[in-house]
Design brief:
97 residues, mainly alpha, 5 helices
Length: 97
């Protein structure tokens, strides 16, 4: 997880607004989608309802949101399968950025 945070943590708004690989969504949209997916895995691990992660007013907050949901997932003592799925989603997102 720390790799993707380091990859995007210093980005300014123009880099967030640029299209991700494939060109159909912005990099910010792609990272927010990852944040939501990790939040869903954490909610599932805690047997809690899934909730929408708000899209904050500035994309520069996305690395912090990513850190928070990753910590939530680890604190939820997710299954090995859930952690493997999270790692796969992070790797796919990194590749698309």
């Amino acid at each position: 997880m720390e790799l993707i945070v380091r990859q995007v943590g210093h980005w300014q708004q123009p880099r967030w607004a640029a299209s991700a690989a494939g060109g159909n969504v912005s990099r910010a949209d792609l990272v927010h989608q990852l944040v939501q997916e990790l939040a869903n895995l954490a909610a599932d691990a805690e047997a809690q309802p899934r909730r929408a992660v708000p899209r904050l007013g500035h994309d520069l907050a996305l690395p912090d949101q990513l850190r928070v949901v990753a910590a939530d997932l680890l604190a939820a003592t997710a299954s090995d399968a859930a952690l493997a799925r999270a790692a796969s989603q992070v790797a796919a997102t990194r590749a698309a950025l």
